[in-house]
Amino acid sequence: MRIFNQCPVCKRLGQKSKLYIQGFSTSTSIISEQFYDEKGKFHSHDSNRTETEWYCDKGHKGIKIESTKCPSCSFGQEGKVEFYENDKLISLPIEERKRLKAPK
């Protein structure tokens, strides 16, 4: 799944660069729970997350964190991209995240 296609630091600075994925990701493997509540709303409670390190040819680096927020309640978190800019940790939500949809 493509989460972003350019370095977020370069994007903020108006620069162009090549983005490299480190080559491997680490993932958790926790059983998720999907259900419809008493009002008929679909819930997906998935605690799993995947972390992938990345860097660009301008020397910026960071971590892409893929996780899921339930579409019907406050369970979980949206994915995010973390990186360092001037020695300060920046955390941005993943803009291209697709929302979970109830199965038909």
What are the salient characteristics of this protein?
single chain; 104 residues; mainly beta; five-stranded antiparallel β-sheet; two-stranded antiparallel ribbon; disordered C terminus
Provide a concise account of the structure shown.
This protein is mainly β. It is 6% helix and 42% strand.
Task: From the alpha carbons, calculate the radius of gyration and give it in angstroms.
Answer: 16 Å
Q: How many structural domains does the protein architecture include?
A: 1
Mean pLDDT: 78
| Coarse structural class | mainly beta
The string of secondary-structure elements, in order, is HEEEEEEE
**Intertermini distance:** 22 Å
* Overall morphology: elongated
Q: For the report, how would you describe the main beta sheet?
A: 5 strands, antiparallel
Low-confidence stretches: 95-104
Percent in helix: under 10%
* Main sheet: strand order: 1-4-5-6-7
